[in-house]
Design goal:
5-stranded antiparallel sheet, alpha+beta, homotetramer
Amino acid sequence: MSGSIFGKLFTVSTWGESHGKALGVVIDGCPAGIALCQEDIQKELDRRKPGSNPFGTKRKESDTVHILSGTFEGKTTGTPISMIVYNQDHHSSDYSEIASYYRPGHADFTFEKKYGIRDYRGGGRSSGRETLCRVAAGAVAKKILSVLHIELFAYTKSIANISISQNHFNKDNITKNSLFMPDEKAAQQAEIYLKKCMAQQDSAGGVIECIVENLPVGLGETVFYKLQAVLGQALFSIGAVKGVEFGDGFSVSMTKGSENNDAFFADDFGKIQKKTNHSGGILGGMSDGSPLIFRLAFKPTPSIHKTQHTVTKDGKNIDINIKGRHDPIIVPRAVVVVEAMTAMVLVDLLFQNMISNMESIIKFYKT
Amino acid sequence: MSGSIFGKLFTVSTWGESHGKALGVVIDGCPAGIALCQEDIQKELDRRKPGSNPFGTKRKESDTVHILSGTFEGKTTGTPISMIVYNQDHHSSDYSEIASYYRPGHADFTFEKKYGIRDYRGGGRSSGRETLCRVAAGAVAKKILSVLHIELFAYTKSIANISISQNHFNKDNITKNSLFMPDEKAAQQAEIYLKKCMAQQDSAGGVIECIVENLPVGLGETVFYKLQAVLGQALFSIGAVKGVEFGDGFSVSMTKGSENNDAFFADDFGKIQKKTNHSGGILGGMSDGSPLIFRLAFKPTPSIHKTQHTVTKDGKNIDINIKGRHDPIIVPRAVVVVEAMTAMVLVDLLFQNMISNMESIIKFYKT
Amino acid sequence: MSGSIFGKLFTVSTWGESHGKALGVVIDGCPAGIALCQEDIQKELDRRKPGSNPFGTKRKESDTVHILSGTFEGKTTGTPISMIVYNQDHHSSDYSEIASYYRPGHADFTFEKKYGIRDYRGGGRSSGRETLCRVAAGAVAKKILSVLHIELFAYTKSIANISISQNHFNKDNITKNSLFMPDEKAAQQAEIYLKKCMAQQDSAGGVIECIVENLPVGLGETVFYKLQAVLGQALFSIGAVKGVEFGDGFSVSMTKGSENNDAFFADDFGKIQKKTNHSGGILGGMSDGSPLIFRLAFKPTPSIHKTQHTVTKDGKNIDINIKGRHDPIIVPRAVVVVEAMTAMVLVDLLFQNMISNMESIIKFYKT
Amino acid sequence: MSGSIFGKLFTVSTWGESHGKALGVVIDGCPAGIALCQEDIQKELDRRKPGSNPFGTKRKESDTVHILSGTFEGKTTGTPISMIVYNQDHHSSDYSEIASYYRPGHADFTFEKKYGIRDYRGGGRSSGRETLCRVAAGAVAKKILSVLHIELFAYTKSIANISISQNHFNKDNITKNSLFMPDEKAAQQAEIYLKKCMAQQDSAGGVIECIVENLPVGLGETVFYKLQAVLGQALFSIGAVKGVEFGDGFSVSMTKGSENNDAFFADDFGKIQKKTNHSGGILGGMSDGSPLIFRLAFKPTPSIHKTQHTVTKDGKNIDINIKGRHDPIIVPRAVVVVEAMTAMVLVDLLFQNMISNMESIIKFYKT
């Protein structure tokens, strides 16, 4: 299996299984001279770690990160940055049963058909736990973005059919509740809904929106590596994502060109801007100076305690009740994962963008 | 600029501008021994060529393809396959005006900011004409799929708010009208709508659906190269796409786990199958044996004759009326492009999948 | 077959067979804003084209290049640069015989075993003619180097056991004879030797040396993409090369550390320099500010008219006399190929080097 | 800095500094179903670990490897294999002095110029200690080769001007002495020479030869990824290598085509073979069925205790005596590193080779 390495210049290689000894990530291609300490990584990991909200798994993991290489005297040196998180609270016995059958909505069936062998303990490599490595790498990418004054944030836009009101959206409210839903009323309704789901031994889905402000114009490479294309891969690589849309997204199929086109204008200082932002900050596959906006649809957690029908490895039809400690919804914990994947993509495209023009290359080598 | 090369093992490199001498594509990594002739490519190109439907551009191009390398005595040899299409009917004079301002909804602004230079004639490299190279490469990929008995087709699912009825969907009806809309009634309504758009000097958007049948289980590599992730990049790399969803897509965010999970069962022959296909044929990032299903939302063509506001290179606010020969809708011509990108992705993942398991490697080298 | 794409950021994709319709190359990742015309490419192609020296093949090819994309008003635009050379003087009938047997020293046997099919006409893809695409791409790379004031030149150091005298080496003498041997006396001896070879229906080998001056310090990425490693791949990818060495090369295995280490010193202007250059301009896998120096050993052309033993496809032992128009030595024509591969590598590493340090990234995005 | 990831399908990502907390490697793309335990890795690491011969550094490291992911019940699962070795005996104080000046023959100068920051402790990332990660990854690659009955071994061919006698070469004698020199007499002379070197506070170089037997025909991809080209990168990426040659190597430049060509013949069983092996097992960039043979020249260890001239960071000319525990020769410890890099390359090319031909792809997907 290949597939665990992402990025052209800022290259992230992740490894580890849910119930293995540890999980980790190696970043190859991080520039030298960035101030980086364990706390920079830890604070991001803490946002996704189990127990960060009442609707997440009850598995107890401190998810303490260790930086093993790539920094010296508090700064990156340009060499690969290796980070590791040891597993602690894995109850593999909870999973021994799974070895014999295929859980609906999970990778069990496909994994076994492809590889002929399956580490069934906690889902092995297919576990959502794998995303902690993305968050660690994303924390490094975010440091780079912040140095460049680029601001990136994601939040829960809706859970089931409960959506935040966009009218008085305020990003400072994102962290005000454990659902990362910047609308107190919607968050309360969602909590009630989720408690009902849990009582029914069921699970729920939702939508995350991500916004990036202050991006330079021109990120994204033409044709196959357009900004939305690279993000498309990155976002759909998050396990439970079933849909991604940019700007006005699917609704553009209903509009006319005259409605959907964003008119340009020069403001009083002569700066060229767009009157509207239907495009979500992308034109011709490149960032256009407006905020980058996109949404992801997450399916309900497939692990539910409710009785389900399935089949054993030997082809026997059975009814199952999945045990273990599972999130009734993964959306709130996925918010930081969305940010991480986005940050990695942007850093890579920021780097690639630097050699678009001979002029800047000449300037670099003159000094 | 990089960005014009796609694929890990079946690698496609495209080149060419709308009003340049020619456009072309090179495929590196096509196996030897596949019967391939120009007609295989031409028939696909004819499906997207201008004039293939009354709602496409009036530009006249025969789009005749020439295979310049990589075949011998009617078969691929394993060496790079180079294909070329010469431009004929380019009216660059239509575009001289564009040199001075930025068209709304187009790459003009971002391209110029990134590269400092812009081939404005017909949109240069950002023209939809670039997609003919994808269709040519896709035609080769489709040959490989057909040898493996994998069936792939796309069609127009909706134009504006006119959608086909899914109830009596029949893929044989896809080519019955020039909109590739397999529902005669919907197609007629759409035609009326599009004529109205044209009368209003405006344009329309729509949705394409793509289905792939008979895929082996296990295509897609874990974590970052999941089936939906690689498709995500490929599909979002098509110029006007603003949304992509797999299976039940965005609507899964509204459902519960117990509704969205596809139960497994063993059929009378012991074959493991899914009772439903909410997942759209993907589990754990791999094809799961059910049909692969996904949809793409296309924005309305940005080139409209209607008056629009914009700004010149010098920052002067102006009103413009775009000239030239433009499609009032690109969806029907994009159907074959969606198929092409999908075919390329599947071939690449089919190849990668062959080395998942040591057993098959041993078998290969024993013979 | 994959294998025809080279380079990470300055990516070169070549295609074409010896007796096909054409050969060509696509460069993806060339920055915008470089003055480039057909003559820039043609003058390099003319240095390698058949007939450029009396000891080359008698095949007559004008090798006229056409730039098909990627430039506008005399400058690169940042889009892929496609270049093509049509084949003219191919006598495929000369080769019909080869179809039935395997020429010693050639790719016939391995190619057929690997692919099951072989375009035997002129060696197909394995022909030395493939290198013209490298020279075309190298010409673009050289333009970039020259803008950065980096000087690159290669020359014939020896033919058989006739070597130039290093004592009065002058690079201006390289082009003074058709063997690119900057030592008139050695060149005359070599000519006599080569004529004897031809009379004996035999062929000769030789050594090329390449020197690059004025490289910035720090080119090359640590561990697997050291300067000598990337060059190692590039140089050994030239068909007949059997050995590559940097600086003092193989002879260092005989020396002691105290002899081989190059002492640093600060000159009168405080500039840090090396007293000697045993390292050939590389330290720790990176360019060290001294001239980059390396040598390549070329085997004698395998196509000789002399009687040879071999075997047919059916396994019959036979004697053969190879027909066709072959170079009794390929070294002089390979000089420009060595320069081309070197230029591509250096440009790629120059680009990669620009994102080593966060400081330069901040500076780029501030302006 | 990028550069620490190697391989297209069998992808190896290394990390770690000489005096950091640990070093490690992640393999992405190892097939499932290979029996693998820590002992498989440890026995290879033990061959290169400090103290494995009297002429190596006196640093004491157990170099105990831990497999952290990618195996389950003793077999690879197809997921990334992460391996780690913790540093124990690092005396960073020995190196504090180095912070202020540039050691001749080392990466100090270039590293600092490129990155602006340098982890000087033990050479940081440029330390030879980095190669243990290659050996660990190579151990996994060797397991794959051994399953396919491919035999790979390297040995010390010469130290300074003391060379083994090729006449009675026996690979079983390689491990009979700590210099891995399969010729007892030569080994004794070399020991005497090395002791003299050490007495003189100096160091020595040498040549390693590597042979691979039983390779299938056809490994290597045409043009840029020829077998010798990929090996060229891999071998030159080993720190102290200044020259690489295949088969008859540099001496081919002296021969004639009639001498250098290897004649084919069909043996009594109809198997096609070569009478000689001047080519070193490579034809047209692919393995040709004969043993693969190549040699690498290593420079003398640059760290010597003898007085040397150099310059401080501030540009002051000084005399230095390097302290610390250094190998007077690295050749014997590099033998296993050469094997490791070769094994990685071969595994990658074995995998790539499997999709050369449509026939085998059809066969794979039929079963």
